[in-house]
Amino acid sequence: MTKAWRPPMGWNSWDSYGTTVNEQEVLANAQTMHDRLLESGWNTLVVDIAWYDPTARAHGYNENAPLVLDEYGRQLPDPQRFPSAADGAGFKPLADQIHALGLNFGIHVMRGLPRLAVERDLPIFGTPHSASQIADKTHVCSWNPDNYGIDHSQPGAQAWYDAQVDLFARWGVDYLKVDDMQTPFYSEEIASYAAAIEKAERAHGCEMILSLSPGGWVPTTHVDFLREHAQMWRISDDLWDKWSDVYQQFTRLARWAPLQRNGGWADADMLPLGHIGLRAERGDDRQSLLTPDEQRSLLTLWAMGRSPLMVGGDLPTSESSTLDLLANPALEEVTAGSQGNCEIIRERVDAEWGKDETYLGDQIVWKAQAADWGDGSPSAHAGGFYAALFWTGSEPREYSVALQSIVGISKASQPWTLANLWGGLETQECDARIEGKGPDRVITATLPAHGTAWLSLDPADSEE
Fold first, then answer.
1. Is the whole-model pTM more than 0.85?
2. Distance CA 216, CA 37 (A)
3. Looking at residue 123, what DSSP letter applies?
4. Same domain membership, residue 198 and residue 73
5. Residues linked to residue 233 through DSSP beta bridges, in sequence order
6. Which of 69, 95, 145, 427 is deepest in the core (most CB within 10 A)?
7. Residue 63 placed within a domain
8. pLDDT digit string, tens, across residues 213-258
């Protein structure tokens, strides 16, 4: 079966805990995901960066950190933060607990090999070579000091990645997020990790998703290479709980959405929703600063763009309203079961035509066709369509879009029923309706500031 035939939905520790998450916090998030979100499609837990650093702290990284390594230079979980990893057990005990809840387990690593392994000149498992022989001390990450790069012209280079990923597979890792891979774009590193994963999958009879980060300046011309070697690839740098960050993703997802395919997904980054910043890289302890309308717009855009959905807020301590948003079944339905997803309208609105200084915002419309879920599971809206009307301005606005632009000219005269996919929640609901008669009917919506109308359109036997 194709890995990641639908965009993964899960939780990642970065927005909440930065480099410092511990075992108890991971398990608490796993339990909340199982209890509140699993039925809605959320099924993956990811421990982000520096799980091997016993000196990890909020708001930054440590030079010359005493990383926990095995005798072959491979990272091991810090047993102080992850007690079940003691005595060389690694992440297997934690992965077993996550799996027992019906969830998948993932971890983050940096490209390259630990500088500490090079300083100690540790052997590379299964080879006569050592870490110092394959290290490239000029090929380093610009923002994290843990690793050196790898010189792939040297014997033993691929063997390092093979041995590292084999260890992860034996722990039961289902999802591997590899960082410092795309900005700049390291095609040789991506291919090496893909080869290591394929080898480990054959050896252990498992499947492991490869997710690449970060995503600044990633061009769509790389899409064939990315599809061949990975299941997820970021298309932006880190996104936080600012509307300006969300706004930038409209253009990026519009560029990538037509290229989404089962098995390989352009990733618009984590969802900074819920309780974030507990011990994170940026900002203080807070509930997401995005307004409820902005949160719905973010989730709608990610779903219509078929981006993976990886929430960053600490689930047990997030507001109940956030969990209600995440539990909306439309998120899984549209990310897994839609096709032809694309932005069809984007128009600038000025209070006075031709005067840039009177800019109010953008009217943006997306559409998609309901489809099966890639595994043959039928869509709840078979034969229907999804539409999302967005307004990026800071004041409410009403606007209309032609019905035929969503359902097609040939079907515009047919009767259609409209439903609000954010309906039924204790949130401000948009006022959306079909107006007019015949093929010239329009969908009109009153949208709040930075808001959306997320709609399904289904064939009806007769006019309402």
1. yes
2. 30
3. B
4. yes
5. 212, 266
6. 95
7. yes
8. 999 999 999 999 999 999 999 999 999 999 999 999 999 999 999 9
CA terminus-to-terminus distance, the chain:
43
Identity at 120, one-letter amino acid code: R
CA distance 199 to 43: 25
What domain count does the chain have?
2
Q: ∠ at Cα 136 (132, 142), nearest 5°?
A: 125
364 and 386, same structural domain? yes
Structure tokens at 244: 């300006």
Asked if residues 108 and 11 have their Cβ atoms less than 8 Å apart, the reply is no
Residues with Cβ within 8 Å of residue 7, at least 6 apart in sequence = 265, 306, 307, 308, 309, 335, 336
pLDDT tens track for 53-68: 999 999 999 999 999 9
With both helix axes pointing from N to C terminus, report the angle between 23-32 and 92-100 in degrees, rounded to the nearest 10.
10
Q: How far apart are CA 303 and CA 454, in angstroms?
A: 10
Cβ–Cβ < 8 Å for 331, 363:
no
Structural domain boundaries, residue 44: 9-336
CA gyration radius, the chain = 23
Model pLDDT for residues 99-143, shown as the tens digit of each residue: 999 999 999 999 999 999 999 999 999 999 999 999 999 999 999
Amino acid code (one letter) for 149: G
φ and ψ at residue 239, rounded to 5 degrees: -110, 135
CATH number at residue 417: 2.60.40.1180
User: Quick one: residue 35, left, alpha or beta (phi over 0 = left, psi -120 to 50 = alpha)?
Assistant: alpha
- The answer to whether the bond into 272 is cis (omega within 30° of 0) is no
Domain boundary among 277, 311, 336: 336
Whose CA is closest to 249, among 294, 282, 293, 209? 294
